[in-house]
Amino acid sequence: MADQLLLRDYVPRSRLRVPVHLVDRPRYPVFDAHNHLGSVFAGDWPARPVEDLVAVLDESGVERVVDMDGGWGEHLRAEIARHVGPYPDRFVIFAGLDYEGWSHDERFGETEAARLRDSVAAGAAGVKAWKLLGLRARDPRGRLVAVDDPRLDALWATAGELGIPVAIHVADPVAFFDPLDRFNERWEELHAHPDWHFHPTRPSEQAEAPGFPPFDEIMQQLEHVLARHPGTTFVGAHVGCAAEDLGWVARMLETHPNFNVDIAARIGELGRQPYGARDFFLRYQDRIVFGTDVPADVRSYRLHYRFLETRDEYFSYDLGEVPGQGRWMIYGLGLPDDVLRKVYRDNAYRLILRS
Ligand SMILES: [Zn+2]
User: Fold this and answer.
1) Is 262 helix (H, G, I), strand (E, B) or coil?
2) Closest by Cα among 5, 15, 64 to 37
3) Cα 293 to ligand 1 centroid, rounded to whole Å
């Protein structure tokens, strides 16, 4: 029928005529504080020579990258040898956690703490906690491990003692916790990735286990951890795990001086609330670090620069024909130079390399 069209076939093209300012080089050299070089999130980079990656970074104006995929043990040592070995000034490797191992280790918190000491001795500069914490990782009795599970206190405290930051990603976009119906703003994305749907009524893997906790509960758990470990520096991935609610993130930043955020994979969220986002950047300019979370690519980096540096209106936040996180466009923030410099590099040097 001529008056019906499938959503997936709908690809409207904006007829706006507005100024376009493409930004080839960032105003200041960039420290990408959230990327992946050694996992499925790294695209084809693990199979390509590191010098090709460095060439892309050079062309993009990126001077340093955090690789969240260090893991531990042999994998960590290999990841460090591959990247930091030949390019000590270009790469920083974060260790990871063995979520799977928690299900058969009564003392998993102590195990992680001890392993973190080894990882840092081997050259890891931080540790990454991933959303499996709070959503999927289970203890030996089969119970979900909450983000604020006291058994993990040893790990968070050890990170503080070692003086390394914890990059923490819990929960996910809030719509991933909503019913998957016609009101869900991430409908297409969740249909493409059904395993990202965490609505509480959707049973988790184990039949007898309870469903996923609600979004707000996970966020409260995160706040408990921030409050219990004031001596540990946390960087909340993806705008503090709550890019849709900058008011909540602002309250966390005000209440917990040990909390900071990266902007990885969230220019789509920030850019659809440009007035609030710009105020947020100005107010918390010392607490925000740049990150992309997408396989290193000149076009992706340039899109981020356009978002942060220009006041361009109504452009896509990714490179696809239809933007992947939801059907909306973004607006540039036109940040002042001093703020750009902090967000692009200075904050990350201070928080991650303590320089
Ligand atoms: Zn990531």
Assistant:
1) strand
2) 64
3) 5
What residues pair up with 259 in beta bridges, in sequence order? 234
Tens-digit pLDDT string for the chain (355 aa): 679 999 999 999 999 999 999 999 999 999 999 999 999 999 999 999 999 999 999 999 999 999 999 999 999 999 999 999 999 999 999 999 999 999 999 999 999 999 999 999 999 999 999 999 999 999 999 999 999 999 999 999 999 999 999 999 999 999 999 999 999 999 999 999 999 999 877 655 555 556 899 999 999 999 999 999 999 999 999 999 999 999 999 999 999 999 999 999 999 999 999 999 999 999 999 999 999 999 999 999 999 999 999 999 999 999 999 999 999 999 999 999 999 999 999 999 999 999 8
The candidate with the shortest Cα–Cα distance to 33, out of 62, 54, 53, is 62
291 alpha carbon to ligand 1 midpoint, in Å? 9
Centre of ligand 1 from the C-alpha of residue 191, in Å: 21
Buried b (16+ CB within 10 A) or exposed e, 163-183: ebbbbbbbbbbbbbbbebeee
Collapsing DSSP to helix, strand or coil, 49 comes out as coil
pTM exceeding 0.85: yes
Report which DSSP code applies to 198. -
Residue 113: CB atoms within 10 A of its CB come to 20
Q: If you measure from the C-alpha of residue 85 to the centroid of ligand 1, how many angstroms do you get, rounded to a whole number?
A: 23
The residue count of the chain comes to: 355
